[in-house]
Batch of 2 targets.
Target 1
Amino acid sequence: MTIIIDTPERLDTTTDAVSVDGVTRIFSARKRGAADVVALSDVSLTVHAGEFVSLIGPSGCGKSTLLRQIADLDQPDAGSVSVFGKTARRARLDQDYGIAFQQAGLLPWRTVSQNIALPLQMHRERGLDVAARVRELIELVGLGDFADRYPDQLSGGMQQRVAIARSLARNPKLLLMDEPFGALDEMTRERMQSELLRICGETGAAVVFVTHSIPEAVFLSHRVVVMSPRPGRVKEVVVMERAGAPVGSDAVRDDAAFFRGVTAVREALHDGAAAGQGVENR
Amino acid sequence: MSTRSRSLLFSSATGIAGVALLAVLWEGYKALGPAEGLRIGAVEGERGSGVMVLPRTDDVAMPHLIDMLVRLLEPVSSSAADTPLWLAVVQAASLSLGIALCGLAIGLVVGTVLAVAMQRVRIVESAVLPLVILSQTVPLIALAPLVRSWGARIEIGEFEWQNWMSVAVIAAYLAFFPIAVGMLRGLQSPSAVDVELMDSLASGWWSTLVRLRLPAAVPYLVPALKLAGASAVVGTVVAEVSVGLPGGIGRMIMEFAGFVSSDPAKVWAPITGALLLGLVVAGLVALAGLPLNRFRRTELAS
Amino acid sequence: MTAATAVPSAPVVARRRGLPPALASALPPLVLVVVALLLWELAVRALEIPAFLLPAPSAIGAEFARLTPQIVEASVATGTNALLGLVISAVVAVLLAIAASGARVVDGMLAPVVVALAVVPIAAVAPVFYIMFGSSSETGRVIVVAIAVFVPVFVNALRGLRQVSPVHRELLRALNITGWRAVRTVTVPTALPFVFTGLRQASSLAVISALVSEYFGGPKTGIGSQITTAASGSNYAQAWAFVLGAIVTGLAFYLVTLALERVVSRHRPSP
């Protein structure tokens, strides 16, 4: 299946997709006497156009918070975030990114196609055939027979595909994904990972992907950003080798490079002093 | 026979049996109960002393059910040319129905606007919501006789305040509370994920309201509307009595109660009408809710 | 796979430092009430609003102070009817709920009655009760209250009775406890908090029904009768003072039943 998607002129592809510079985010304590929580401390990160970057780390390391800064769903206390050279807010208002959460977050009273159409209805583009675009997206995520179903009639994996189709609706050059496959069973999860890589290959979008799973991060990413908690900061950035089996194919999972990547990320997560192959120390 | 239709048959059969049992109790007590009722603590030779705990059973206090039904078919007054009683009751109930629906509509609009304001502005919620909840616990209907004094005394230009408007205002007053509270809970019901999704789509306040919050509020609105419908009916009937609005079912109850000694079965006709009015409004509200079922998928499926 | 990271929800409520939370949440409505009363007073004076439309709060307050004994007396009369009706209804509703939870036939027979009672204006039946029990009797009002509050108490009691957990049910079977003893040892204690939730919901309805039934005739003892009398005599501030008395009575009923509910629901999963 090939979907022809026009290369948008509106973006300068040489600009970095995301540039996070010295971002700090502190949540003030709710209860009196409790200490404030430093969710992010002086975090910097660059994501190039078309690059797939995963954020990984234990609970509370601020990876979701970092994603929310990029999406402008939350604002940093210090530092700055720019998306395609604009402020995060401007990028959100211009709809330069698509986002998917761990919960599919579909509106239960809308059918699959109506859910996917939501971003298109919200900001009407002149001359855009919404129905045709929705059909295209439904095909892209392989839900052709389910266009008129309601979310409660779909499995968790199918709901998540709808959410991904929705995030792709406006053909964004940046995808933000917060553990989108976290609630899926392992088999569905692996299939979704392959499909995501295929879709990214077709659209050329950069991706910032939050995950708890080391294999998932290694399988998907060009670079894996390993974060540590209290205070949330970037511990290491591990660059993946992309040799051997074709990117996105299941053969990658049996590849020696894949295992080396897994080991490298695991060591980085567990304070592994011995920097493995392809590890970029900071 | 399918399980579903069998359980429907069961509930209809038992339901009819339940209503029939009430009729049997009525006639049974009338046949067997003490003719003068039962008083506790009555002083010998002193009429009306003590507390009456069981009603009298004579034909004035408790007419036969069949007499009530037959009376409905006869003319309102002794002159044979008069409209039949059932028709007069239906006409009166229709007038009350119109007023109750009018009150319900006003209540819906006011309640919704207030709920949206409370959702939008936090300080409004923290100031108004406790009062709205508190006001549901106090008998605001006590104000009904006071609104009576408004009739025909307010004039704004061409506009003259009508008595039926006083009744509608009270009905609306009672109807708006459940709607405001239910609607607010509904508007606040979308999860953080849903709200963030709308934010990520650069959705404005209005767009989020229309596309997310209002549809999400429907499962909360429908039961609130049922409550509001019942409240509007109570408000209408009570206000008709206190305002003294002629033509409605509330007023007819008071009027016919005066005929009790000469025509005891007639008293029951408008009361039946009031009970029917409540059922009709509940039915209409349920009907109006049907097109909204699309927004109640998750609720109805469970 | 670990659970999702807890993301702090977006709007962080600004805390009023230095104020205890109860006061902090009571402050805005109190301020609103005071402001509304002041505006009301000012409007009545400045715009010379006639008393039939809206008397000034100060006038109502003065009448309330002057008529306190009468207002208390009338509130007690209405409150007694409400209380009697509430208690009678609670007993009947709980017994019927036990029967309905035990036998599907009873449940089915009660269903249409409960549905109908929830939507019909019960107060409208008051006139025939005055006929059946005599127009000088308060019994009719008590019965109106009892019928009106039946639905919330019954519905909550039934929900509570059905709440008995399977574990407890199996425990009873294992201990060979059946019939009324089973009801007493596990079912009633489980259902009790629900019954009191029903009573709390019914409390305001009880006062409202007692008051409204007075609008339909009967002895001129209660607060509803006093409101009608004062209003028809054009003593508007006086009528409003009685309305204030009715509000206090309604609040008292609500707060007492709320306190009872809290006491009964201690150490139990809240309904």
Target 2
Amino acid sequence: MKKTIFLGALTVAGLTAGAAAAATLDDVKARGKLNCGVTTGLVGFAAPDSNGEWKGFDVAVCRAVAAAVLGDPTAVEFVPTTGKTRFTALASGEVDMLARNTTWTFTRDVDLKFEFTGINYYDGQGFMVPKDLGVSSAKELDGATVCIQTGTTTELNLADFFRKNNISYEPVPIETNAEGQQQYLAGACDTYTTDSSGLAATRAAFENPGDHVILPEIVSKEPLGPLVRHGDNEWGDVVRWTLNSLVAAEELGVTSANVEELASAAGDKPEVNRLLGTEGNLGEQLGLPADWAVKAIAANGNYGEIFEKNIGESTPIGLARGLNAQWTDGGLLYSPPFR
Amino acid sequence: MTTITDPQKQDGFRLSMLINDTRYRSLTFQGIALLALIVAIAYLGNNLMTNLRTAGLNISFEFLGTPAGYDINQTLIDYNSQSTNLRAAWVGVINTLLVAFLACATATIFGVIAGVLRLSPNWVVRKLMALYVEIFRNVPVLIWIIIIYTIVTVVLPGPRGYLGEDPEREMLLGMFAFTNRGVYVPAPISEAGSAVVVAVFIASVIGIFAYRRYATKLLYDTGKLLPVGWPSLAILIVPTVLVYYIMGQPISLDMPDPLANRFNLKGGLQIGAPLIALWFALSIYTGAFIAENVRAGILAVSKGQTEAAAALGLRPRRIMGLVILPQALRVIIPPLISNYLNITKNSSLAIAVGYADITATLGGITLNQTGRAIECVLLLMLFYLVISLLISAGMNVYNNAMKLKER
């Protein structure tokens, strides 16, 4: 019996490590499908809609990559992952990339051997409390019971925040956002903490969103972005520059409405031409067709369009652009030049 | 006299004898199987190491010494977010052992009661117990854990009702609070001299056993019947209470404090809702299995035994206690061992309700925060293996003591 378990574990570990070394871009092309790791369901970021079709801000990144590589934004297999399973799924090759509000940290990048390919959302950790609790600052939460998704950076930030302010709390570890929502509403905890974008998305799904407030404190930096396995730089470049193309497209005024027209012939803006493949050979350098960025942008629109459609102020989630505006508008979004 | 089979000529060992000779054949096959197993393990191990090296990873247990960085809600030993991952793993080990011990005890009680009552002559009781057994053992334990946790969190009131100068809810006897986050009870605080009180209490318990043994011996030797009930109670209580007051009341109670903060009761002993849900679900689920073992054990004792005991004038309760159960135990104990092992292993479902057992700390949060999956899983396997073997060994000692001694 014990030998069987041991053998099983070794097999899994062996397979795990074995799959990680292959060239992902060729694999994806051969498979004709992109395996993309997403959350198990966070409205606005990644959740299946009423037709079972995955929609959201992170989903759009997966679709853009699939469009750039395979020419088809629907050629994506979405693999739902929890905070606990996401890294194993990526390391084992079960998914080709993770687009799952994952915070870029030193250890994840260096020690866990992943490569973050950019930042698609600048976030920070916040707290949500019921309005009738009368709490107006996170520093008043001394003695509170806190629901927290386990295996996340927020778990560590939470411990740091309370230690720094010399106040105490009781953690209630939970596995998924849905579970956290249920526990919080059942009153098993006084406050729910996660990235403030996640809180807004969760609150939007409540029956009475107005009964809950998100406290003003942002206790951490949470740069969220897609990531791939370390050591496959060609694939990393594809994901990185697909994301950059969406950001650059917004800056350059390329939208899903005008991208086809702009790509039909070289125009008078050299960077737009290079981005859309009417000038130079950027696509070829990535190992992709010349119109890779056209396909990526046509899939869901540029960064601004994706933001507005999924989590922007006109949606129930209602997030302002804030730090996620273009650098020209006072935000932090800044794509390196396409040349 | 002629014999048909001549003894074989001992002209040494031939290679073909390994297959053809029954004396060697089994050894041959065992040897081959062992060799194959070793080769397979070596292959997989080598594969693992090679692939880890290719991926630039290594096996290292250094993470156990680094600060864990996260907090745990229920800890029986000192722990904070700056403690090491090893310490966090210990917290998990102790929590696992705690819930396994509690659940084994209550599951046995539930199981024995339900098993005996399933054979009751009373139709209603019998059918009720059958219903309990069938419902609980046919639904997965994870579902029961979640159902019970949900019931606890939804049915019981939030702790805020108990808080403040003028609370909406009164604590039971001013000491017990039942909230959806757990049950708060007074905690004993030891001061100087409390050890003496505890020692006297333990001595009294031993004294009760000594007295009972003496009473039985007296009964067998002389036929004189000493009262047992009230003297036992007196031995239990009187010396302890006397010493408690003589030593100047060295043990006081720490009451749950409703004024500590605006969110939760503070102080006292908090038995968290996750622990309650897990404990209750494991006991009631495994209790259903144990009930069936007990029933099987009792049915294994021949009906003649009951009738003979009844003919001697024993009442039904005595028949069960003195005649049937001691014989039934021989049948009950071996499957009981495997039920105890199941409880211990099923306790790893704790994370479903946020109880910090070893799977949740070492195999969950630590694994996630450090990314050391292989190391954590190996340690987990080792832990469950050791614990299961220890339980097995302990129960086997008990089984050997109980089993039929053949003379």
